[in-house]
Write a structure and sequence with these properties.
11 helices, 308 residues, four-stranded mixed sheet, five-stranded parallel sheet
């Protein structure tokens, strides 16, 4: 079972069928004035038809009981998230829930990990740092797209990166290669006064904004002329306006969302991550225990405990 839309996500069902899935159910979101369930279904069917695999595909707008009980791999994502206890307890004994990102990137309420443990349903994740996925390339590329959209020059810019997680390395290296002068701080309150041109936020989202009124008050003193770029992690934009700070995107992309979706980089990064996530799920479903550095990861309660 996979999510689908009228964009690159429509390729996930066909990718799974190409990888050997006996059948795939693609879940669309209900139609709104912003998106069409029919368009998503049409594109998903068209791709499967081109591959000669349409007969193995079904499309629905919700997860019904029969489909759930016959699903071995359930891909968590838009229109399927959150993976709740009611879904998890209906999965068959041999099943896995697949994340399309790193285990540590899991956000609160994305999945009921306790229910997974109780029912023996493992949760696979994918190492975006693995060469087959290419996160070391597309993560900084996405950040550079944000700089471009914010109209902030990178070459020669003094950039403070607020990051306490594995994104720090790829973002620092990528921006430095593009000509930025990089300094990494694990917290906003540690950013020192300097002539910063940009502050990049890359912290895992939590219930409260990762840059709240106290953080923004500090940044107003340390970097009053910098553009604050939201790569990941929410920002209290009302407080930012109070301190007359420039934030990009100017409007929130949505609670817990990335500053820009990966799709802005074209199909390749998204398709690499989809293929990696499906392969990781196959590995975990086969009962293989991933080793450090492998493509596959397994989510544990410790990956989400700090969000509780």
């Amino acid at each position: 079972m996979v999510p689908t839309d009228s964009g690159f996500l429509a390729a996930m069902a066909t990718t799974a069928l190409h990888a050997g899935a006996g059948s795939v159910t693609a879940i669309t979101a209900p139609s709104t004035r912003f998106r069409s369930a029919e368009a998503a279904a049409e594109k998903t069917r068209a791709l499967a038809s081109l591959a000669g695999l349409e007969h193995k595909l079904s499309i629905a707008e919700r997860i019904d009981d029969e489909t759930c009980r016959a699903t071995n791999i359930l891909v968590s994502g838009d229109f399927i998230r959150p993976a709740t206890r009611s879904i998890i307890e209906r999965l068959p004994p041999r099943s896995v829930i697949a994340l399309t990102h790193e285990a540590w990137m899991t956000v609160k309420d994305e999945i009921d990990i306790e229910a997974c443990i109780e029912h023996g349903v493992p949760v696979s994740a994918v190492s975006e740092a693995h060469p087959l996925v290419g996160g070391a390339d597309y993560q900084p590329a996405l950040c550079l797209e944000l700089f471009k959209a914010a109209e902030v020059g990178v070459r020669g810019a003094a950039v403070a990166l607020i990051c306490d997680n594995p994104l720090a390395g790829p973002l620092k290296n990528g921006l430095r290669s593009a000509g930025a002068q990089m300094t990494v701080f694990p917290r906003a309150d540690l950013v020192v006064e300097h002539g910063w041109n940009a502050i990049v936020l890359a912290l895992r989202p939590q219930d409260e904004p990762r840059l709240d009124i106290r953080d923004l008050g500090h940044l107003a003193k340390a970097a009053p002329d910098a553009t604050i770029i939201q790569y990941w992690g929410d920002i209290d934009r009302k407080a930012a306006r109070y301190f007359e700070l420039t934030v990009w995107p100017s409007r929130t992309p949505g609670k817990g969302q990335w500053g820009l979706p990966l799709q802005v980089l074209g199909p390749e990064p998204m398709l690499q991550r989809i293929a990696g996530a499906l392969r990781a799920a196959q590995t975990v479903l086969a009962g293989v225990t991933p080793e450090p550095g492998d493509l596959a990861q397994v989510l544990s309660s410790s990956d989400v405990s700090e969000l509780a």
